[in-house]
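Weekly sync, protein design subgroup
Attendees: M.S., D.O., the rotation student, P.L. (late)

Item 1: inverse folding check
M.S. brought a backbone from last month's batch and wanted to see whether the design step gives back something sensible before we order anything. D.O. pointed out we never logged the input encoding, so this time it goes straight into the notes. Structure tokens as presented (272 positions):
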């Protein structure tokens, strides 16, 4: 299952509104992020004779991420696009079912948000997000990656969730120094887990179900001059997916996947 990121758009809008001398309506941001991803999965309801009955595993990875966004502000309303992608593959020891090896981990997130201030510096926002995590285990004796050698491409597991979220943010202006804001958001999404083991797509693992998520964050944003500023954002996101087999190959099984992401982002923003 993959998860995504619920964004700092509301904080950006609050920072803008606090700087009334800056006649802004466009705020691009670019930042570097360190994301700690803790991933857990459990395979449920396998046949009693199956050695993988109730198998479970996890991994933890620290992923360097490039974060880019652009926010448009019109009076009390705002809209934003945000994209985050890993700067490089990160290796982590994984015992998630069917990996059982050092694995390359990648993460990617996209979101679009609309919102506005409803009372003082309280903002309500909603939007669409999509997140994806990929696990590519190294071939070792006994895992599916080893059995996959010689086929097209490396064996990989892909976890993706996408759907709608809603949240709120409140900001406090600290004298003339900048704006501190806090946000809370909830996501209700669909989730998919699949792999590329078989030569025929409908013989692969493919599980689909519901995914929910909760994000809490705090952001400091401040101008350096009339055209340039900076921000620092800390965020915790937790996502859970409950999915069932959709190919009919493992009809009695389901998977529970949990991801917790802690991220710290620092970057610059321009005022136009």
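Designed sequence read out in the meeting:
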């Amino acid at each position: 299952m993959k998860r995504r990121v619920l964004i700092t758009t509301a904080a950006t809008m609050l920072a803008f509104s606090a700087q009334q001398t800056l006649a802004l309506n466009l705020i691009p941001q670019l930042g570097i992020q360190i994301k700690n991803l803790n991933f857990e999965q459990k395979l449920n309801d396998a046949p009693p004779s199956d050695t993988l009955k109730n198998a479970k595993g996890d991994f933890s990875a620290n992923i360097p991420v490039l974060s880019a966004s652009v926010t448009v502000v019109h009076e009390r309303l705002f809209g934003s696009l945000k994209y985050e992608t890993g700067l490089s593959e990160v290796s982590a020891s994984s015992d998630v079912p069917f990996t059982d090896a050092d694995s390359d981990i990648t993460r990617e997130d996209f979101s679009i948000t609309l919102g506005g201030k409803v009372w003082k510096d309280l903002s309500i926002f909603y939007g669409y997000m999509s997140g994806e995590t990929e696990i590519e285990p190294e071939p070792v004796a006994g895992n599916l990656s080893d059995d996959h050698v010689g086929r097209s491409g490396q064996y990989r597991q892909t976890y993706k969730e996408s759907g709608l979220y809603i949240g709120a943010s409140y900001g406090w202006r600290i004298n003339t120094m900048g704006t501190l804001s806090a946000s809370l958001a909830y996501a209700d999404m669909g989730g998919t887990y699949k792999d590329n083991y078989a030569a025929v797509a409908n013989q692969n693992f493919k599980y689909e179900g519901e995914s929910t998520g909760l994000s809490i964050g705090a952001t400091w944003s401040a101008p350096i001059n009339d055209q340039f500023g900076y921000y620092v954002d800390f965020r915790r996101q937790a996502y859970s997916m409950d999915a069932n087999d959709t190919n009919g190959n493992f009809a009695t099984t389901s998977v529970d996947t949990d991801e917790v992401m802690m991220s710290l982002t620092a970057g610059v923003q321009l005022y136009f």
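Discussion: Residues 1-8, 16-22 have pLDDT under 50 and may be disordered. Residues 18 and 112 are 23 Å apart (CA to CA).
Action: P.L. to compare against the previous round before Friday.
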